[in-house]
Specification:
Length: 237
């Protein structure tokens, strides 16, 4: 017990501060990746719902590829593909040597691309769940397409989307641990460093699991609160 307190303590010689800082990196990575994924997902959903062939086809390919390819492979492809492109650009301007993409930015992009493929399906399903009468009401009121989406359709769409988005968030949080393979020191990587340095892998991996659980529980409650408020607002309306 004394050894546990010493290893995970916040005082000098303990790993508590390092683990908490790594947790903040995990949280920032996940939030930014999820938000970027929302942009990709909205574009993918719009493409899937489009009556035009090319946008619908591109959105279908995007969703199929990034939901089918292993997440770790996507991370490697983005990191090494982007680094090769940067290296070639650097050589064109006279730079020498390998130029690697920043690990954090690559992680945000990778999580955004992956989660966007899932969020696109969530938004598409939520859009189709909105009662058709709402669209007729918008036309009857003379609202433009942008006004209809902003004032009527999107608020109702989000009520249906929030449960699915909560599931995608949990996926994003777990995928953040994979970004350590390209050198980012997030929670999982910090736990590995601590385990290797102290030869106490069980303690550090249990601590990492506890921190992941705390992050997941707190953020899940945020989604549940948002979902409850959204449906209460619809009932009162």
């Amino acid at each position: 017990m004394i050894n546990l307190v010493h290893l995970l303590g916040l005082e000098e010689g303990g790993w508590g501060v390092a683990l908490l800082l790594a947790s903040s990196v995990t949280l920032a990575l996940s939030v930014l990746g999820f938000l970027l994924g929302a942009v990709f997902g909205a574009a993918a959903a719009a493409g899937r719902l489009s009556s035009r062939g090319i946008p619908a086809w591109l959105a279908h390919v995007y969703g199929t590829v990034f939901r089918g390819v292993p997440d770790l492979l996507t991370i490697y492809l983005l990191y090494y593909g982007g680094s090769i492109a940067l290296t070639q650009i650097g050589k064109f301007f006279g730079a020498a040597g390998f130029v690697g993409l920043p690990a954090f930015a690559t992680g945000v992009l990778a999580i955004g691309v992956i989660s966007g493929a899932y969020q696109g399906e969530v938004y598409r399903g939520a859009y189709q769940a909105v009662d058709r009468g709402q669209f007729d009401a918008c036309k009857a009121l003379g609202l433009s397409r942008s006004q209809s989406l902003r004032l009527v359709i999107v608020p109702q769409l989000m009520r249906h989307a929030l449960p699915g988005l909560g599931n995608v968030w949990q996926l994003v949080l777990k995928d953040s641990a994979l970004i350590s393979v390209i050198g980012l020191v997030e929670l999982m990587r910090q736990a590995q460093i601590g385990a290797g340095s102290t030869r106490e892998p069980f303690i550090f991996y249990v601590a990492a699991a506890a921190l992941y659980f705390v992050i997941a529980a707190v953020t899940a409650s945020v989604f549940r609160y948002g979902e409850a408020r959204a449906w209460r607002g619809m009932v009162h309306a």
